[in-house]
Structures are given as structure tokens and as C-alpha cells.
Design brief:
The chain has helices at 3-13, 17-20, 25-28, 48-55, 58-69, 98-104, 123-134, 153-167, 178-190, 194-201, 219-234, 255-261, 274-287, 294-303, 307-321, 330-347, 350-361, 365-368, 375-390, 396-402, 409-424, 426-438; strands at residues 32-36, 40-45, 74-79, 83-86, 92-95, 143-146, 173-177, 206-210, 238-243, 265-268. It is an alpha/beta fold and 443 residues long. It folds into 4 domains: 3-79, 2-Layer Sandwich (GMP Synthetase, Chain A, domain 3), CATH 3.30.300; 101-268, P-loop containing nucleotide triphosphate hydrolases (Rossmann fold, 3-Layer(aba) Sandwich), CATH 3.40.50; 289-343, no CATH class; 350-438, DnaA protein, C-terminal DNA-binding domain (Chromosomal Replication Initiator Protein Dnaa, Chain: A), CATH 1.10.1750.10. Helix 1 (3-13) packs across helix 5 (58-69), helix 14 runs parallel beside helix 16 (330-347) and helix 20 packs across helix 21 (409-424).
């Protein structure tokens, strides 16, 4: 039993175990690998409550884990003792670790500047994030990072939080996805707790909001974030924002927020080139103690453009070679992609495409399947039709039926139109490639 096997188990739990027991997986993610031998794995719980909860599910987890270890593996749960510091007075104070502080603040312990691979496509963003971590509130405020899926926006933003805490554990930092900020505000309004909401967000040394584009079009949320932004900055705090597009291209965003977002440093992170993808893959393999030949890593990097898909591909190949080979070689990689090519289209469903397009353009699925004629709805609808027809190979009538269209000639028109636009509109082609990459389909 190794940490890599446990990581593989967690990855598959997100798709397999989670289907049977959806309430369990969020708690599994909070367990930290400590050690393992042939018959036992030791996992750390961040608090006693988590330990009590997981203990009730141990037989279920161990039974699922057996599929990966090929034998009975006992799980031992521990809770790390809280470190104590003796003050001059006889009173004791408790000091949380860096990882504890990060998790408490919504950050992940996985991301740091040390495990971020740098190349010409992201070196400006990397340098900017380093500068912000060294000079909160003074270097670039806000730091606005944008780019497609898997280019490293979240990694850099999270690494800034880690470095901030490592330098000064008293700093107040918080990481919030855009949709979480929205949900928290709605909940606060409903329960009449907006004062607590503002107290949480407005006195931070570092506020990171991931996918800030999700607050667009929501007037009350934008109003609250405008005041939150001003409060953090006015008290000397730092704001870092990430998005899939620059401030000028976020639709339905208030002009005053667009102005604030553009008032610091805006950095475009380009998709990783071949060399960077190879480096990222080798870093991931090293972190998970997976032995992989350099030529095998290069082959994966050639075929996979999305960095998030790189890790998933690595674990998938590892699962197929585990117990059969000492390392991942070129033969194992070629065999994996040969099978994947045959099965890939079958794995992507029409609903997957619909969700990917609606998420990218930040519009409701119901609008894509509706009858709205607005340009901001029609284009995503036509792109959806194009992908369903050209990539999933659905018939025109099947596409029309799926999107609630009576006449399949609408689909024919959409497919022809998008095909022409992709050939002459580089901005649309860039958006389209990002959507395709998020679906792990090849362009």
C-alpha cells in the first residue's frame, strides 16, 4: 500500500464510491495520508469529529479499498495532537500548523510556489504572484489572473496564500470560489446575518476569489462585493481574482467593478506548452511516488493539453499498470490511449456538453434549451449543437430533440455557421478550444 494507491482510490471515489454514497466523499478528501505498510494505512483526521464520522464508515471504505490493494487493508485513524506553547504566564496557547490554517481559510494544502512549473506561458503571472505574497496590498492590487481551464490560475492564487501564512501566521486570509461567495451572501440575507458575513470578508489581509465571473449578472451580489473589495483594499489588504476571461470581457458586470478589477495588474496565462506540460506531469508523478519513463511522460504531454486532465490520465494509467509493471513505460501509455480513443466519445454525454457550455458562458442551461433569441444565448446554443453533432456524432434530429427544437434544420444551420466562424474568428476559436479541453475531447 502506498500514498499513490490512496490518491488513486480517492480519485476513483469521486466517480464510483461517490455515486453510491455522495455524502461520504467530501469527508474522505479531508483525510491526510500519514504512512502505510502491506496490511495497514494510517490516515490523519483534522479533528475528532471527522474521526468519529469516518469510524462509522470504516468497513465500507476498507471494502472499497480492497479493490485497489487486492487484499484486506486495515485503516487506522489518528488525530494529530495540537501543539502547545508555554507562555511566560502559566496559561497555554494553541498553535495551528500551516496546513491547519490554510484549510481553515478555505485554501488547499496541495498548492505552493515550489510545485508550480514555470515556463514562458506563465512566468509573468508567477512573478506577479510572488511579488504580491512579499508585499500584500502594495505590489499589485488587485492581481487579476485569467486564462482557460487548467493553466494554473488557482494554483498561483492558492500558493500566494500559503506563502503569506508561512511568513506570518497571524495574517487573515480567505479563499472563496465566486459561487460560494454568492451562496454565502444569499444565506446571510435569508437568515438576517449580513453583519457576520461582512465581518468575515471585510477585514482580511488577503482575499482570493476564484472564478469571479460567476458574480456577473447578480446585482445584489455585485453590490456586496463592491463594498467588500473597497473595504479590504482600504484597510491595506490584498485582493486576488481569477477568471476565465479579462474584466473587459465579463458580460453583465457593473462598470464600477470592471474599473476596480482593471485597476491593478491583469495577467493573461496562456495554455501550457509541450515542455511545461511534461514538467507538470513529472512533478505530479514525483508527488505521488509514481515511477514514469521520460518518453512516456512526453507522449502523455503530447496528447493531453489540459493540465487537470494530465493528473487524471497519470492516475488512470497507473491504475492499469499497478502490480504489473515497475514503472509506466511508453508501451503502457500507447495502450491506454488506444483504448481511450475507442471509448472517449461514449463517455461524454450530451448533458456533459450542455453543462460545459453553460458554465463557460455563465448562462443557465434552461436558456440554452429555451427559445431566447438574444445573441448571448444563441451563440452558446449553436456551439452546443456543433459539439453534439461534430464530436458526439449525434444525428441532426437527435440534437434537435435534446435541445427542445422542433425543426432539425435549425441544427444544420448552427453547425454550418459555427464551422465557418471557427475558421475565421480566432477569439471564438479560443473559447471553443477551452470548452473542448474542459470536456477532454481533442480538437
Amino acid at each position: 500500500m502506498t500514498e499513490s494507491v490512496w490518491d488513486l482510490f480517492l480519485t476513483d471515489s469521486n466517480t464510483n464510491l461517490n455515486k453510491k454514497y455522495p455524502s461520504l466523499y467530501p469527508f474522505l478528501k479531508q483525510l491526510r495520508f500519514v504512512s502505510a505498510d502491506k496490511e495497514k494505512i494510517v490516515l490523519n483526521c483534522i479533528n475528532p469529529g471527522l474521526k468519529i464520522f469516518i469510524e462509522k464508515k470504516l468497513s465500507l471504505i476498507e471494502e472499497e479499498l480492497k479493490k485497489y490493494t487486492q487484499k484486506k487493508t486495515t485503516i487506522k485513524l489518528i488525530v494529530s495532537p495540537v501543539k502547545k506553547q508555554v507562555k511566560e504566564a502559566p496559561l497555554l496557547s494553541f498553535q495551528l500548523t500551516t496546513e491547519d490554517l490554510l484549510i481553515k481559510s478555505g485554501f488547499s494544502r496541495r498548492y505552493s510556489f515550489d510545485n508550480f512549473a514555470v515556463s514562458s506561458t506563465n512566468q509573468v503571472a508567477y512573478a506577479a504572484a510572488q511579488a504580491v505574497a512579499d508585499n500584500l496590498g502594495t505590489a499589485y492590487n488587485p492581481l487579476f489572473l485569467y486564462g482557460g481551464v487548467g493553466v494554473g490560475k488557482t494554483h498561483l492564487a492558492q500558493a500566494t496564500g500559503r506563502k503569506t501564512i508561512e511568513k506570518d501566521s497571524t495574517k487573515k486570509i480567505y479563499f472563496s470560489p465566486g459561487d460560494l461567495f454568492t451562496n454565502e451572501l444569499i444565506e446571510a440575507i435569508r437568515e438576517k446575518k449580513t453583519a457576520l458575513f461582512r465581518k468575515k470578508y471585510r477585514r482580511l489581509d488577503l482575499l482570493v476569489v476564484d472564478d469571479i465571473q460567476f458574480i456577473a449578472g447578480k446585482q445584489s451580489v455585485q453590490e456586496e462585493f463592491f463594498h467588500t473589495f473597497n473595504s479590504v483594499v482600504s484597510f491595506g489588504g490584498q485582493v486576488i481574482l481569477t477568471s476565465d476571461r479579462p474584466p473587459t470581457e465579463i458580460k453583465n458586470l457593473q462598470d464600477r467593478l470592471r474599473s476596480r478589477f482593471s485597476g491593478g495588474l491583469t495577467v493573461d496565462i496562456q495554455p501550457p506548452d509541450f515542455e511545461l506540460r511534461t514538467a507538470i506531469l513529472l512533478i505530479k508523478a514525483n508527488e505521488k511516488n509514481i515511477d514514469i519513463e521520460i518518453e512516456a511522460a512526453k507522449t502523455i504531454a503530447e496528447k493531453i493539453n489540459d493540465t487537470r486532465a494530465l493528473e487524471g490520465t497519470l492516475l488512470s494509467i497507473y491504475a492499469k499498470t499497478f502490480g504489473k509493471k515497475e514503472k509506466i513505460d511508453i508501451e503502457a501509455v500507447n495502450e491506454f490511449f488506444s483504448i481511450k480513443t475507442k471509448n472517449n466519445i461514449k463517455r461524454i454525454s450530451p448533458n456533459d456538453v450542455l453543462r460545459a457550455v453553460s458554465s463557460y458562458y455563465n448562462i443557465n442551461i434552461s436558456k440554452i434549451k429555451g427559445d431566447g433569441k438574444e445573441a448571448e444565448i444563441v451563440l452558446p446554443r449553436q456551439i452546443t449543437m456543433f459539439i453534439l453533432r461534430s464530436y458526439l456524432k449525434l444525428k441532426f434530429k437527435q440534437v434537435a430533440f435534446f435541445l427542445n427544437k422542433k425543426d432539425h434544420t435549425t441544427v444544420i444551420h448552427a453547425v454550418n455557421k459555427i464551422s465557418r466562424l471557427l475558421a475565421k474568428d480566432p477569439l471564438l476559436k479560443q473559447d471553443f478550444d477551452r470548452i473542448i479541453a474542459s470536456l477532454n475531447l481533442s480538437t
